[in-house]
Every structure is written in C-alpha cells, then in structure tokens.
What does this fold into?
Amino acid sequence: MINVVNAVGGGYLERELDLEALQIDLDTDSCKFNSSNPSRMYLQLREDSPTISLFRSGKYSIAGAESVDELHKENYQFKKEIKRLGVMAKTGKVDFNTRYLVGIGDLGYQLNLSEVLATIGAEAEYEPEQFPGLYYSPSGTTTYVIFSTGKVSINGPKTKEELEERFNELKMILRLIQSI
It folds into this structure.
C-alpha cells in the first residue's frame, strides 16, 4: 500500500498580476512577497493548508495537499478569493490540473542498495556518501527513491491508482533482483 503525502497541481488565471498590490488585499493566513523579486509570492489561505506559489504571469501552483481532493478544494478556495478581488480571467474559468503526486510505501524488508544498483544499472543512481537513497527513474515520468530500510518514495504519477501500479511494478522488479 502507498500513502499520498503530496499532491501538486497548477493553473493559469489568463492575465498578468500586480503581486505587490495583490498582497495587500488577499485574505490569507500567510503571504510572503519580496519586492526585490516581484515575479512571485507564496501564500497559504489557512494555517497548515497547502502552499500556493503565485506568479506575476498569472500562473500558479499548489503543493502540499495530502490528496487530489484536497488539492482541488484548495484550488476552489483560491479561485473564490481571487474572484472576490476581481482578478479572475474574462472567461471566469481557470485551467487547473493535477501535475503529480508523491507517495510513500514500505516494501516490508531491507535491501542492499549496492546490489540493486548493480542489477538495474543505468536507470539508477546511488551515492551513499551524498544521500542514503537510491534514485531510480525507469520511465522519465516516475522517479523512485528507494532506501535500504525498504521505504520507497514515488514521485510523478497523477492518480492514486497509478501510484499503486508503479509501487507494485517496483515490488516485482525488486523481487526479481532478490531471487537472482
């Protein structure tokens, strides 16, 4: 089983924004804007809510949601706040999509990461002096970080079902390696 620990999505308001003026009017729990770098701001609508990165171009991303549902609820609340300020695009629609999920799973056994690296080779990177996990990116769209404890982080799928599929595929690959 895999648990979603981060859902990331993004959207576009279809207009350029004056972030300096916007920071004054936003009703948020936290808003960080640096006038020496006026191209972006970070905000949280409520304490402990996902973080929204809002760019002058009108593009934004939301990170830190613990599910796709929470991600879309946060987007809804953000659009509501932007609409309240009269900042919505002419169409009133905002292009928003889930970009990727991060999940954590446990294989239930320990691994020798040097052996795993020797078997899967070019698609993996393991430098224990730098970081205790093995990076494995077989598809270019999914990245695994595998730890000797059997814990695994999976980054890239867009749905919980796809996260589960990638985790099961990895378990099969690692079982094959263990049987060699």
Notes: The longest strand covers residues 95-106. Residues 107-179 form a domain with the TATA-Binding Protein fold (CATH 3.30.310.10). The first helix runs from residue 19 to 25. The two ends are 25 Å apart (CA to CA).
